[in-house]
Amino acid sequence: MTESIKRGKLIWIEGTDATGKSTQVERISKRLEAAGHSSIAFHEPDGVPIASAIRDVIKNGSLERNALTNLLLFSASRRENWIQLGQQSLLDGTWVLSARTSLSTEAYQGDGEGLDSEIIQTVTRIATGDDYLNPDLVVVLDIEDEDERTRRIAERGPLENPDTFESRDALFQEKVRQGYRRLARENNYPVISAKQSIDKVTDDIWDHIQPLL
Fold first, then answer.
1. Residue 211: cis peptide before it, omega within 30 degrees of 0
2. Which residue blocks in 2-112 are alpha helix, DSSP H?
3. CB atoms within 10 A of CB 175
4. 137 sits in which H/E element
5. Looking at residue 1, what is its pLDDT?
6. Sheet arrangement for strand 191-193
7. How distant, in Å, are the alpha carbons of 8, 102, 122, 185 from that of 78?
8. pLDDT of amino acid 84
9. Torsion angle of alpha carbons 64, 81, 23, 142, nearest 10°?
10. Helix or strand or coil: residue 60?
11. Which of 61, 109, 179, 207 is deepest in the core (most CB within 10 A)?
């Protein structure tokens, strides 16, 4: 009899811009591989070709639009990543790691841009489904210092077009940060300081992943 494949785990690594989400996704992926677990990494809204094309629109701050349009764009990208790659990967036993998820949409389009949370949740459920909305672990990275956040972004160098969200003012950024903290509090997600060294952040995330191995 063929041994059944154990489902992979869905891990969300979240937080505001410049908290090092993508870096941590890559580092955790390497640790999982070393521990004998295959994994794939998403850096929403990037991913499969159609998602990458949508990302170019999302990131271009020169293209004026409102919060609902942003929700629809992110949801379209998220859907294609999920149905083309993420969903089946989990069923095949692969761990799926994502830097940015629908939690970002809650924080940015909800708390930041004022879109109703029920609309966000309804559209996300239509675009993805219950499997997506029930990750095995969510970790929120947090930078308490806005000066540190802007310094890290400045180190990336000039952009061809203004970034849709990174270039927003400090009031918007604080709304988003508080949105993440609210979501973490309401859902009992661990919050990890991203001001620590990269290695320490990785170790802290790994502490939460180990019980799932």
1. no
2. 21-34, 49-59, 67-81, 87-91, 102-105
3. 17
4. strand 137-142
5. 43
6. 39-43, 95-99, 10-15, 137-142, 191-193
7. 19, 8, 14, 24
8. 97
9. 60
10. strand
11. 109
Structure confidence at residue 161 (pLDDT): 65
d(CA 73, CA 124): 11
> How many angstroms separate the first and last alpha carbons of the chain?
25
Q: Which parts of the chain sit beneath pLDDT 70?
A: 1-3, 147, 156, 159-162
Superfamily, domain 10-207: P-loop containing nucleotide triphosphate hydrolases (3.40.50.300)
What is the predicted pLDDT for the residue at 166? 80
- Residue where the block lists tokens 């811009």: 17
| Entry pTM | 0.91
- Where exactly are the structural domains of the chain? 10-207
Structure tokens at 101: 């998820």
List the structure tokens of 213.
């191995």
Comparing CA positions, the residue from 150, 189, 144 lying closest to residue 168 is 150
Instruction: Give, as one character, the DSSP assignment of residue 2.
Output: P
Q: What would the pLDDT profile of 83-112 be if each residue is shown by its tens digit?
A: 999 999 999 999 999 999 999 999 999 999
Instruction: Give the pLDDT confidence of 178-198 residue by residue, as tens digits.
Output: 999 999 999 999 999 999 999
Q: Rounded CA gap, 146 and 159, in Å?
A: 20
pLDDT recorded at residue 5: 84
Per residue in 132-143, pLDDT (tens digit) is 999 999 999 999
Question: Nearest 5°: phi and psi at 118?
Answer: -65, -35
Q: How far apart are CA 175 and CA 185, in angstroms?
A: 15
